[in-house]
Amino acid sequence: MSLESNNGISIQKVETSKIASVDFENLKFGSVFTDHMLVCHYKDGKWGQVEIKPYGPMSFAPSTNVFHYGQAIFEGMKAYKDANEDVWLFRPRENWARFNKSAERMAMPHIDEERFVDGLKALINLDRDWVKQGEGNALYIRPFMIGTHEGVVAGPSSEFMFCIICSPARTYYSGKVKVQIAEHYSRAANGGVGYTKCSGNYAGQFYPTKLAQEAGYQQVIWTDDATHTKLEEAGTMNVFFRIGDTLITAPTSERILDGVTRKSLLDIAKSKGINVEVKSIVVQDLIDAHAKGELKEIFGAGTAVTVGQIEGFAFQEKYYQLPEVSDDNSFAIQLKTGLQGIQQKKIEDTFGWTEKI
Ligand code: COI
């Protein structure tokens, strides 16, 4: 292994890359990781040196905070390679800012922009061969932080580890999905942690999603915890509805994640002259619009999936199939193409969202 130093970042490279053994045509999302990872520890009230080292197992005491109290947060981001072999990040500072919002809510320390963004750039630069060109190809980036203090006292950790791992990815879901609207379970509540990317937010979805899958649906559309009428998120994504020619999504709140893909799609939609409304939408609005033939599309939006089309929804034991919309007439497809075009540098980035590595 060779050890280098770059702007205060220590870099320990693998001797032999494992890239030749990876089948990039048949990647299962999030199952293959690049050669290196970034690690930085927080102790005695401050962050230490950023280290880039070979991706591999870590060792923690069984009493470590994260195993018992789940003091853990993460982000999801992507890097893309353009036709000139340049590698680009998409709005990385938005993820950095949201990471710190999650950290605040989970009683964890903020991390500075240099360690997060510059560290990430150094990591991706080292593993840049893992970022593949072409439609649907990206490097999925997973920054996360865990409480590493040893001891089972139920309180915030005093020590933390920040880490970034990267996984070559193609699209997250293949094809359209059927969803079930939540009538009993909730993903978030006012005053809770719904707007953060804390790990428990996702673990709490596993059981209701498993029940929905057993009933024949792939995902759940989450409703507000108090009335189960307001449509808030879909699975691990923000959710959009097209009624007539208006695109509608719920406003962000304490219960709804401020998705980077969500806000980018809203800006792209406006730039294309699509009528956009950010407002609360209830299940009955959806059922009424469906009855009138005005409900044309529902889709989820998130980093992993980009845009995930929904073919129909179930509510109170009844299934509502959405009409077929051709790709040329689909808001989901137009917005996905617009977003991916910017991300992959095929369309001019007039918004200034992309950052070269
Ligand atoms: C993302 O879209 O990046 C997410 O964080 C969702 C994840 C659970 C795959």
From TrEMBL:
The keyword Amino-acid biosynthesis applies. Its cofactor is pyridoxal 5'-phosphate. Its EC number is 2.6.1.42. The modification N6-(pyridoxal phosphate)lysine is found at residue 197. SUPFAM superfamilies: D-aminoacid aminotransferase-like PLP-dependent enzymes. Gene3D superfamilies: 3.30.470.10, D-amino Acid Aminotransferase, subunit A, domain 2. It comes from the Bacteria. It is an enzyme of class 2 (transferase). GO terms for molecular function: branched-chain-amino-acid transaminase activity. It catalyses: L-leucine + 2-oxoglutarate = 4-methyl-2-oxopentanoate + L-glutamate; L-isoleucine + 2-oxoglutarate = (S)-3-methyl-2-oxopentanoate + L-glutamate; L-valine + 2-oxoglutarate = 3-methyl-2-oxobutanoate + L-glutamate. Keywords: Amino-acid biosynthesis, Aminotransferase, Branched-chain amino acid biosynthesis, Pyridoxal phosphate, Transferase. Belongs to the class-IV pyridoxal-phosphate-dependent aminotransferase family. GO terms for biological process: isoleucine biosynthetic process; L-leucine biosynthetic process; L-valine biosynthetic process. Signal peptide: none annotated. Pathway: Amino-acid biosynthesis; L-valine biosynthesis; L-valine from pyruvate: step 4/4; Amino-acid biosynthesis; L-leucine biosynthesis; L-leucine from 3-methyl-2-oxobutanoate: step 4/4; Amino-acid biosynthesis; L-isoleucine biosynthesis; L-isoleucine from 2-oxobutanoate: step 4/4. InterPro entries: Aminotrans_IV (IPR001544), Aminotrans_IV_CS (IPR018300), Aminotransferase-like (IPR036038), B_amino_transII (IPR005786), BCAT-like_C (IPR043132), BCAT-like_N (IPR043131), BCAT_family (IPR033939). It comes from Myroides marinus. Acts on leucine, isoleucine and valine. The keyword Zinc does not apply. This is Branched-chain-amino-acid aminotransferase.
